[in-house]
Design a protein that fits this description.
Helix content: 25-40%
Number of helices: 13
CATH architecture of one domain: 2-Layer Sandwich
CATH topology of one domain: Uridine Diphospho-n-acetylenolpyruvylglucosamine Reductase, domain 3
Length: 323
């Protein structure tokens, strides 16, 4: 498949990139390209301009600082999970980064690009000829969401692997724009709107991920269910962090809603409780209260609910030393 025609810009600094995006609001940012270029080939995204960040080598790093870690947004996923500190102290992130696509995706794809990926839907992520058999969905420029059967709404699903791992690690992100840089909680950049999944100001770019020191003082893991061991996006995914000192837990889910979700009711249920088999089995009845599934994929809703329960229970058993 050929790419559509577009204007290509390769700025030499983040400030230049922000200025271009301010001047051309319809432009798209290119990091690793494993998401955007595929969508462009399918004509589900046809930006008139692509702003490549590939020349910004100063955004490729993994640095430990004050017991935590700072990761440049253009750092390849392979470099993230191969970092000794990440592998030893932040295993949820290492597992999530290593579960993205294939080896080629992990070599090309960046951690920032993975966080900022588009939402997905069986009516949107298709070739142009397939989509031409019915009216365009709202995300592709039409009026109707074929999932919700409503106008001017989009229920496409966020399916990133890295976001839930970073959410349970209490990560923050640095956003750089015309007025400089600001650090905000990762959770705050997701809009919960399928058509525009990110809440970034015009000209703003995600430039760094910051993981605090207390994230390393706990057990963490990421569990994923997919049709194949590589290539595929998750059918569902779940990340868990459990404190070594105060009994607190954080759980995050992916591929269940229009943004990655913190499972706060489950976290409240687990607070100050010792993880036992009885506690683990009680999770099944709580999982359904956390998620709002829609038929945006070919997998049934009952199957996805069952899988989420299995993944969360598996993570909890791993935390208590089981399998």
């Amino acid at each position: 498949m050929k790419l559509p025609k577009f204007e290509y810009r390769r700025p030499e600094s983040i400030q230049e990139a922000c200025a271009i995006l301010l001047d051309r609001p319809s432009a798209k940012v290119l990091a690793g390209g494993t998401d955007l270029l595929v969508n462009m080939k399918h004509r589900v995204e046809t930006p008139p301009m692509v702003v490549s960040l590939k020349g910004l080598a100063d955004l490729k790093y993994v640095r430990t600082a004050d017991g935590g870690v700072r990761i440049g947004a253009l750092t390849p996923l392979k470099k993230v999970y191969n970092d000794p500190f990440v592998a030893e102290k932040l295993p949820a992130l290492a597992v999530a980064a290593s579960s993205v696509g294939s080896w080629h995706h992990q070599t090309m794809g960046t951690i920032g690009g993975n966080l900022c990926q588009q939402t997905r839907c069986k009516y949107f992520n298709q070739a142009k000829w397939w989509r031409s058999s019915r009216p365009l969905c709202f995300k592709a420029g039409g009026d109707l969401c074929h999932v919700a059967k409503k106008e001017h709404v989009c229920y496409s699903t966020y399916c990133g692997d890295v976001a839930p791992a970073l959410l349970v690690l209490d990560a923050q992100v640095v956003l750089t724009g015309k007025d400089g840089s600001t650090q905000v909680p990762l959770e705050s950049i997701f809009s919960g709107e399928g058509k525009t999944p990110l809440k970034l100001e015009q000209g703003q770019i995600l430039t760094e991920i910051v993981i605090p020191d207390h994230a390393a003082d706990g057990f963490s893991t990421y569990k994923k269910a997919a049709n194949r061991g590589s290539i595929d996006f998750p059918i569902v995914g779940a990340a868990l962090w459990r404190s070594n000192s105060n009994g607190g837990s954080r759980i995050a889910l992916t591929a269940v809603d229009r943004k990655p979700l913190r499972a706060r009711q489950l976290e409240d249920f687990l607070r100050n409780k010792e993880i036992t088999e009885e506690i683990v089995e009680a999770v099944d009845s709580l999982v359904g209260k956390e998620i709002r599934l829609m038929m945006s994929s070919t997998d049934t809703l009952s199957y996805k609910r069952r899988l989420i329960g299995i993944l969360v229970k598996g993570a909890l058993r791993e935390a208590m030393g089981g399998k």
